[in-house]
């Protein structure tokens, strides 16, 4: 039963990826829609069929959704609102108790911070920014580990 669910979900996933690519919707809309549906389905399938191993799909769905949200906000004047989306995804991962979603959210948050600080490479404060970024990553990793221990055990 579990193998059939995995194969059906794999077919669903690649069918819609191909469909969105065929209609040339881009990574923004496709990432948002496929990511959202993947998160919802991979959260509800284990409840209905007592299947295991859908954390991988939760991770992939989280990455796709956050990639689509990033592409939506990229190079806009309200680019920092992406951090609000990431914060809401951290809250969602705590509510549904998904370590995979928390991991994908943390990974995308680190990638966004690295992307955003790369805009300041030509400034004189770039070495200081790199040091601050390292301290920020360590602090956020500690916070995420505390969140994980508090709400997922």
Q: What is the mean predicted local confidence, pLDDT?
A: 85
- Radius of gyration, whole Å: 17 Å
Q: Note the main sheet.
A: none
Residue stretches low in confidence (pLDDT < 50, at least 5 long) are none
The DSSP helix count reads: 6
Summarize the helix and strand pattern as letters: HHHHHH
Shape: flat
Query: What share of the residues does DSSP label as strand, in percent?
Result: under 5%
Helical fraction: over 70%
Distance between the termini: 28 Å
**Count of β-strands:** 0
Structural class: mainly alpha
Describe the structure.
There is one protein chain. With 153 residues, this protein is mainly alpha-helical. It is 81% helix and 0% strand. It is built from six helices and no strands. The radius of gyration is 17 Å and the shape is flat. It starts with a helix and ends with a helix.
């Amino acid at each position: 039963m579990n193998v059939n669910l995995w194969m059906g979900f794999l077919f669903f996933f690649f069918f819609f990826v191909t469909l969105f690519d065929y209609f040339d919707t881009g990574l923004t809309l496709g990432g948002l829609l496929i990511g959202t549906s993947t998160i919802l389905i991979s959260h509800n399938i284990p409840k209905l069929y007592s299947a295991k191993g859908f954390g991988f799909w939760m991770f992939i769905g989280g990455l796709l959704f956050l990639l689509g949200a990033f592409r939506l906000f990229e190079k806009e004047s309200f680019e920092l609102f992406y951090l609000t989306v990431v914060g809401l995804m951290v809250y969602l991962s705590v509510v549904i108790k998904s370590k995979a979603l928390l991991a994908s959210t943390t990974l995308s948050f680190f990638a966004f911070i690295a992307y955003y600080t790369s805009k300041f490479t030509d400034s004189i404060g770039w070495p200081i920014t790199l040091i601050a970024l390292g301290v920020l990553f360590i602090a956020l990793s500690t916070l995420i580990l505390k969140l994980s221990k508090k709400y997922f055990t």
